[in-house]
Amino acid sequence: MKYYYVYILLCSDSTYYTGMTNDLERRINQHKSGYKADGYTFSRRPIELKWYLQCTNPSEAIKIEKQIIGWSQKKKKALIDENWDDLIEFSKNYFEYVHPDKRC
Q1: Exposure pattern of 41-54 as b/e (b: 16+ CB <10 Å)?
Q2: How confident is the model at residue 48 (pLDDT cuts 50, 70, 90)?
């Protein structure tokens, strides 16, 4: 059975990079070695693998990757830390938890 991985890296500038691959070890080594000079992580090395999810369906892995890419830094950190309460809180509308005075 072939596996696909969605992963989150912590970059040296404290940002997160989210990606998807069918060979996690190879891909992490590529990020660490600076495989692509124009890639996001190249100038943000060193990087550290903080989280990954193994999938058997590539379409599902791509869907999850795209979903996580759209998340805030706080929400990604909550996932990494397995802080389910914060993950739920940060899933709410931005104006509901950041600007309570601007609720409709």
Answers
A1: beebeebeebbbbe
A2: very high
45 within 8 A of 32, measured Cβ to Cβ = yes
pTM for the structure as a whole: 0.86
Please report the domains of the chain, with CATH numbers, ordered by start residue. Answer: 1-70 (3.40.1440.10), 72-104 (no CATH)
Which amino acid appears at position 63 of this protein? Answer: K
pLDDT at position 91 is 81
Count the Cβ atoms, other than its own, within 10 Å of residue 19: 21
**Residue 1 to residue 37: CA distance in whole angstroms:** 33
